[in-house]
Amino acid sequence: MSRLLRASCAAVALMAGCPSALAQSTSQLPQIEVRAEGGSLTVPNTEQARRAIERTPGAVEVVPDTAFKNSPAATIKDIVDYVPGVWAQPKWGDDTRLSIRGSGLSRNFHLRGVQLFMDGIPMNTADGYGDFQEIDPTAYRYVEIYKGANALRFGANALGGAINFVMPTGRDARTFDGRIDAGSFGFVRGQASTGGARGPADWFVTGSAQRFDGFRDHSDGHAERGSANVGYRISPDAETRFYFNGNTVRQRIPGTVTKNSALNSPRTAAAGNLLLDQQRNIDTVRLANKTALRVGSALVEFGVFGVDRHLMHPIFQWLDYRYQDYGAFSRVTDDRQIGAFRNRVIAGINVHNGSIDNRQFANLPGAVKGALLSSSIDKSDNISAYLEDSFFFLPNVALVAGTQFLHATRDRDDRFLTNGDQSGRRTFDIWSPKVGLLWDVDPAWQVFGNISRSAEVPSFGENSFVSAAFSNIKAQTATTYEVGTRGRRPDYSWDFALYRADISNELQCLTTAATPGSCTVTNANRTVHQGVEAGFGVSVFRGMAATDDRIWVNAAYTYNDFFFDRDALFGNNRLPGAPPHYFRGEVLYKHPNGFYAGPNIEWVPQSYFVDNTNTTTTKPYALLNFRVGYDRGDGLSAYLEGRNLTDERYIASASIAQTANAASALFEPGSGIGVFGGLRYRR
To answer: In the prediction, which pLDDT does 6 show?
Structure first.
């Protein structure tokens, strides 16, 4: 822990000595708009969600839409970039490398280690994979981020935790909300939504369409997305809500290149990607229902969902995957007095099953589907049950204890036997307990600590069934220790956490040079992820040009200390894939008439390794950005934003290998200087 303690001191020094900025997810909190307090029983509004999430004895965050909609709001990075502990770097189009506390560091394609939800409905496939193409930042009222096992309320059990994207309902939505955004690299998007309520019914509908050429060659694409929910209040204590989400995404992939190419010819696409016209194309339809009942002191919630997803993915092979996911969930929350003590219990059960009609063909030049090379039906069944109890043994101090049980199966039926029978079945049964303390020092200041376990079952991309033999890839488990504090005052707020995760069998997906876009999966024996997550915001220099104007200054800093623990091959080497330090900040002038302006920076002051042998690194970088706009919360608003104004050559993302060198094509360059602007109208 000595390195971690030293890092906490370094964090304080760094934040005190560097230009600070607005951590949007916290500094906007005093301006949260609460339009319909208690309006919907099935969906909390932003303030209700914040109060609920702060009952968690661990690092969690609610990011309101005011923190990311006055920007291009094009990718998940625009939402989470000011949340300490979250590392999000765009690769191309909507695709992003996302890691929370080092989750899925070596996952070079798709997502693992973080479970994504849309209004509490799983976005990941049943076997654990996730994608970012279905995320539309313009559609959400707020986003909940639960780090690590703090995501127990969803039954989530991944090292990185969970992210829940929440739409408005008709009871807190605008009658009309429309915007148009445009900018560099051929980016154009239009979006509009409407919502309302009449008697017991309410509705919200949103849709967006965008196209982009991309900064790099061969990174163009377009996307159309739509979402809706319709609620019906059966009685003051009963409400049901239906959800729809549909997406069509077409995206070319520029690929990874050498470090020299990334830094000196950043627009250049990989030759193989050009030859094979590599792409990731997705069509998705998601339907769900959630019902909430208030019974005495308890809130009972239950629902069902179904997802139809078609992935058309010409890369080193032409992948044609059809996903059918379905499931159900139920949860009861009861808050009551037991004798002289307050007690709050949450219990639930989740079912998430699915199948993949998995066919892979040869990919011929020009993205032409060739001969069939493999075919299987992959089935995943997951049942998780969880229980968490918060017992207030003092009026303002709660002992929180809980556990989750996960039963998961992975079953492959090989239908292409000319290369052998690769059918197989695996079963996992894992308990994940948790215990913690939550101290409400005052109504707006909390101190917390917890010890928790997390577990991740291998996905089909990490299982290999050969000659009916079961894969030897094990489930990844971790024990995480965490302490921290959070609080808010009218003119300042803070969010601070220290954590250490001792991990067994960390899943590593190491890039295979012979077949770019694929990987060799292995379990690392023992690894450690520990770090510091620090956010701070303060209002300064009030009353300069008007009675209520001010400058917001804030910072979001993450320290990552990830390493092998006496590994037979790699000793105590650093784990590749994330920078030791990551800093985001902004200084923003805000006038009461709605005008705002100020610079912000993104700073990675130290390079990080891209291989387990610690021989090859990325490059440090600092990006200077500036934004100016006008927004009074209603009517017409506008923004203009410049990104990477110094045209820095930098590496935004890197794939991970066991050993790398100067010729390794592992790197994805970041975008050059770009300017974006938008107009929005609300009524």
So the answer is: 46
Locate 77 and state its tokens.
């990075």
CATH 2.40.170.20 fits domain 2-682:
yes
Place 93 in a pLDDT band, splitting at 50, 70 and 90.
confident
Beta bridge partners of 538: 492, 553
Distance of CA 672 to the CA centre of its chain: 24
Please tell me the distance from the alpha carbon of residue 251 to that of residue 181, in angstroms, as a whole number. 19
Task: Count Cβ atoms below 10 Å from residue 256 Cβ, excluding itself.
Answer: 25
Q: For the chain, what percent of residues have pLDDT higher than 70?
A: 92
Two tokens, residue 457: 């079952």
Structure tokens at 367: 């993205």
404-434 burial, b at 16+ Cβ within 10 Å, e below that, comes to: bbbebbbbbbbebeeeeebbbebebebebeb
Name the band, by pLDDT with cuts 50, 70 and 90, for residue 39.
Answer: confident
631: left (phi over 0), alpha (psi -120 to 50) or beta: beta
CB 601 within 8 A of CB 585: yes
Both tokens assigned to 503: 């991990």
8 Å CB contact between 270 and 254: yes
Phi first, then psi, for residue 595 (nearest 5°) are -75, 140
270: which DSSP letter?
P
What is the DSSP code string of 160-213?
TEEEEEE---TTTS-S-EEEEEEETTTEEEEEEEEEEEETTEEEEEEEEEEEE-
> Taking the model in full, what pTM does it have?
0.91
C-alpha 36/C-alpha 46 separation (Å) is: 10
- Contact (CB, 8 A) for 179 and 679: yes
CB count in 10 Å sphere of residue 541? 11
CA distance between the termini of the chain: 53
Cβ count within 10 A of residue 10? 15
Of 67, 70, 90, 93, the closest CA to residue 79 belongs to: 67
